[in-house]
Write a structure and sequence with these properties.
The protein folds into 2 domains: about 15-185 and about 355-370, Rossmann fold; about 200-355, Rossmann fold. The protein has helices spanning about 1-5, 35-40, 75-90, 90-95, 125-130, 135-145, 145-150, 160-170, 210-220, 240-250, 270-275, 290-295, 310-315, 325-335, 340-355, 360-370, and strands spanning about 20-25, 50-55, 65, 100-105, 120, 155, 175-180, 200-205, 230-235, 255-260, 280, 300-305, 320. About 40% of the residues lie in helices and about 15% in strands. The chain has 16 helices and 13 strands.
Length: about 375
Amino acid sequence: MGASLLGKVPVTSNGIVSSSLLVNLACLMRQPTGISTYVVNLFPYLQPLAPTLLMAAPSEGFTCHPIPAGMTAESGTQGHLRRLLWTQFQLPALYRHLQANLLFSPIPEAPLWAGCRSIVMVHDLIPLRFPRWRSPLTLYSRYIVPLVLQEAQHIITNSVATAEDVSRFYGIPAQKLTPIPLAYDADHFRWLDLPTSNYFLYVGRLDPYKNVQQAIAAFAALSNHTDYELWIAGPPDRRFRPALQAKAAQLGVAAQVKFLNYLPYADLPTVINQAIALVFPTLWEGFGLPVLEAMACGTPVITSNLASLPEVTGEAAILVNPTDTGAIADAMQALASDSALREQLRQAGLKQAQQFSWGKTGQATVDVLQRFL
């Protein structure tokens, strides 16, 4: 991983800052999910701060300190539990051993009552907005995250919407929060000038709040849906996929709704480029990376008119009420039949995407960290 990132390490005007900054990468997974994408693209830009990276595998070009493997979601609930126990009972000793002055965590995890100064990133408060009362993540978000945020020196969020949620749910004052938007890999997600195929596309998890069932219902409402397909790309989830497959069968579109497994990162740009549109009717989103990546590919976007999505899209997408099946279907029908509208949104999306870059995200993060070193 590290060697492929070295070419992207920026040269900044700030110069090298001698510091005792630890960057906790215990949550880093091999597959580039949202948080891992953020981590992998962000930490090269922290190099001017001379950080020590805490990670299971070394990364060339950085000072790294090894930590135990198997502490991510790839190891299931046990992986999360091992990471949380390590954070509370082993990380404080490591912080003191390495004579750290500040710990940066890309998720809201940090030692409590251990004298470790921390800055943490909050991506969303989905576990509180859509709680599952037996879910460990909901319990962690309700009882542990507020303690982490109260002790943190400062909190970074990925959008204004998430910052407002942190204030609303946890009572954190606005002056303790800095929204820093995420970005995309412009060398990877770009317009490829490929012919448009006959499918609409959804990219992401299948959790109920993602509202994939509404995308299926809107697709079924198309007068000529047999001329098209709806591709649903994301990791298979036995908790949710069977219900979505049953929904497609009930609506008579099982043959047109294609459930793809997790798509390799290398394949995503081509699949996105050839879609009629990305259909992303989520009920809430901390940021919405698939929306930004689709705009960067010149693919029209249909997405929700709430949470962070208007921040990301500006006026470069069709924004709909995610609970309105008819509005989503109308948007899909318009994009399927109107090539001029597709071209208009392609141009607007490409322009909007240019406002986001990992360089901007990285520099803004460095500016926050420097204030507390």
